[in-house]
């Protein structure tokens, strides 16, 4: 019998949520409120939809494997060289490329407790050893992470903000951390949700690249840019790291429709503003009501929030589902008392809050 390599044998497959239509059919519900995957509730930019329509006749051709136009646009957007960009099939793809390029069997890959689940998975798949550093509160303990680096450490993953906790660290904290990291360790700064953040001391990873050649910043079109289904994300780094990542990348890892949609979206600044504003108002709507209900939550700067519902979180998740509200259990992150809910449209948030109130306080 053929055996998969050790790292792969130890993997637990990702369990995706059931398709919405299937949930609707099973539960006999007319409407479903899907607040489970930190997506953009506004739908995509109309410009992206138009660009896709325009590109449809060309799908018999292979995509542009170099992503020429999109890289040009991104390089203008950030004021960087195209050679610093690596495109990926979602930023997940980029995270995996990074592990494949920089960590192998026996190497250590360091991240925080409660950090995004792909880091330990990608490390394990590569046969590397994932090292989870205890969190500080619910957030990254950057001093603890620096102290956990060893001769074997090849990679560090930092999520700013982190999913699922929504916690973040400041520019001065990040700078202090980076000074402690030896140059031969690659630091990945995952900024999947950066567009939502308005805190003045939130660091712009791309601006730190010049002074930190071992840094890689990853970003995505899945969240604030509303293109989750198209699977497109990217890394920005020094050009030597990008050269390495582009060597391990599949030549056509980003399809034509994703490329044209991302390009059109980047030009739609109003759409981005609306997405951010919807999220700001929705976060306030959700947290105000949680406060008035006396339900604890972890302060979040992302487009989601982790709510502490108690020991019966799994049951509450099921009961929300029966009401047509899909949220995300986070027990797999070692957070069995929490549920993560994404910020939706005002009426979606309202539906979630009403369902939660009915479940938690049936007699009021
Ligand atoms: N990083 C973080 C922190 C995330 O939460 C996600 C999406 N859940 C990703 C990366 C990957 O997103 P995508 O592959 O859609 O770009």
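Q: What amino acid sequence fits the structure above?
A:
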């Amino acid at each position: 019998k053929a055996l998969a390599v050790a790292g792969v044998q130890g993997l637990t497959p990702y369990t995706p949520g059931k398709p919405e239509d299937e949930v609707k059919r099973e539960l006999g519900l007319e409407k479903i409120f899907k607040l489970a995957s930190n997506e953009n509730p506004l739908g995509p930019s109309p410009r992206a939809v138009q660009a896709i329509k325009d590109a449809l006749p060309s799908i018999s051709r292979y995509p542009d494997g170099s992503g020429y136009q999109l890289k040009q646009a991104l390089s203008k957007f950030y004021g960087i060289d195209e050679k610093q960009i690596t495109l990926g099939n979602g930023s997940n793809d980029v995270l995996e490329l990074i592990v494949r390029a920089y960590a192998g069997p026996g190497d250590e890959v360091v991240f925080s407790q409660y950090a995004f689940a792909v880091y330990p998975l990608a490390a394990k798949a590569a046969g590397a050893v994932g090292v989870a550093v205890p969190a500080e509160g619910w957030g990254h303990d950057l001093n603890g992470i620096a102290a956990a680096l060893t001769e074997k450490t090849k990679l560090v993953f930092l999520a700013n903000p982190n999913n699922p906790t929504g916690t973040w660290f400041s520019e001065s904290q990040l700078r202090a951390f980076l000074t402690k990291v030896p140059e031969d360790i690659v630091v990945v700064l995952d900024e999947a949700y950066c567009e939502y953040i308005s805190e003045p001391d939130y660091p712009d990873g791309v601006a730190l690249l010049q002074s930190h050649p071992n840094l890689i910043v990853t970003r995505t079109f899945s969240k604030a840019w509303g293109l989750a289904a198209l699977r497109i994300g990217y890394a920005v780094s020094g050009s030597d790291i990008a050269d390495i990542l582009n060597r391990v990348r599949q030549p056509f890892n980003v399809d034509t429709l994703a490329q044209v949609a991302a390009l059109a979206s980047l030009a739609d600044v109003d759409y981005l503003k609306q997405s951010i504003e919807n999220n700001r108002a929705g976060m306030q709507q959700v947290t105000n009501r949680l406060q008035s209900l006396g339900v604890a939550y972890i302060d979040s700067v992302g487009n989601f929030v982790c709510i502490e519902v108690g020991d019966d979180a799994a049951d509450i998740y099921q009961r929300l589902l029966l009401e047509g509200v899909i949220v995300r259990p986070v027990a797999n992150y070692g957070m069995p008392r929490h549920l993560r809910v994404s910020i939706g449209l005002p009426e979606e948030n309202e539906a979630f809050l009403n369902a939660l109130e009915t479940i938690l306080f049936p007699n009021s």
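Q: And what stands out in the fold?
A: DSSP finds 14 helices and 13 strands in the chain.
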